[in-house]
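Notebook p. 47: complex prediction with nicotinamide-adenine-dinucleotide.
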Amino acid sequence: MAEAWVTQMRMLITGGAGFIGSNFVHHMVKTYPDSEIVVLDKLTYAGRKENLQDIWSKIKFVKGDITKREDVEKVAEDCDCIVNFAAETHVDRSIVEAGTFVFTDVLGTYNLLEVARKFEVPRFEQISTDEVYGHIHAGSFQEQDKLNPRNPYSASKAGAELLCRSYFETHGLPIVITRSSNNYGPYQHPEKLVPKTIIYATLNKRIPVYGTGENVRDWIYVEDNCKAIDLVLEKGEAGQAYNIAGQQELKNIDVVKTILKLSGSSESLIEFVKDRPGHDARYSLSIDKILRLGWKPKTKFDEGIRKTLKWYQNNAAWWKPVIESERIDFHR
Ligand SMILES: NC(=O)c1ccc[n+]([C@@H]2O[C@H](COP(=O)([O-])OP(=O)(O)OC[C@H]3O[C@@H](n4cnc5c(N)ncnc54)[C@H](O)[C@@H]3O)[C@@H](O)[C@H]2O)c1
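Predicted complex, structure tokens below:
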């Protein structure tokens, strides 16, 4: 990409009020102070303006829905790039009700691609997930491996990706795709494993763990992922997908026990609950391709989880209203 494009862009970031999206917006505001950043977000239960409060004057926020053509067209003209984080993201919710996932993740992405094509947007980055590969018992997935999603969330994300690829092949739309492992860090909705464990430990509440907690995930600190997404936006080859992982694989039960230990809480808070149907056993990614692009994960789990714990401890005013108003426990 030309230098001017990189430092003075007009970027459209969809889903920028959610967890990774808001961290990415923070990263881009800091890294490209001369760029114009437009955030389009529907503000579902997972999106909050508070996540962008400290940089509010530096961005343009538009409340809108990626599944609505007119909402996207209003903000996409003259964009140098679109980065699509907007999605329904919680596997448990997709098991209860899959329609919203198909609608937002697949149809919403299709809609964005059509608008990108109409306005000839020079770069389109689709934020995908390691879950599109399905699970792997030994070894690690490479980018060319078959997509084999096993739950409605990952199937919707895989559908979105395939549409992106088809727009590259058919229409020459310069798309790139990132597939990252499990992120953790500030602004993650309390329904997800890490914040839920931290918050429940703080409240001295029972912490539900699926099955025996043996499922393995790779964990990446969200800031590291944001840097990788930025790099792929700039240097990724059009039509290609890039795996992003922290190279720190842990069993869910070990993540929970680490948090309990760091927060001085007892392991007796752990409550094993009936396993999630179709629960993927292990995710693992080879990151050789993005290493060659010039990125590597910096934050060790031990350091990242301490920072995350501190953030939630210092920001109870951020999570308390969510805990009080929403159903975040899907286990019973
Ligand atoms: N969290 C992870 O560990 C992880 C890992 C790999 C990939 N991803 C992917 O990264 C992206 C962001 O994930 P997250 O964890 O930050 O999600 P999130 O649930 O925290 O945020 C999603 C955001 O999208 C917005 N949104 C939802 N539907 C929308 C619509 N129709 N129009 C506009 N905005 C809409 C929500 O309001 C919210 O701000 C997703 O695409 C997800 O699949 C997440």
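Notes: The two ends are 50 Å apart (CA to CA). The longest strand covers residues 36-41.
Next step: compare against the earlier run before touching the bench.
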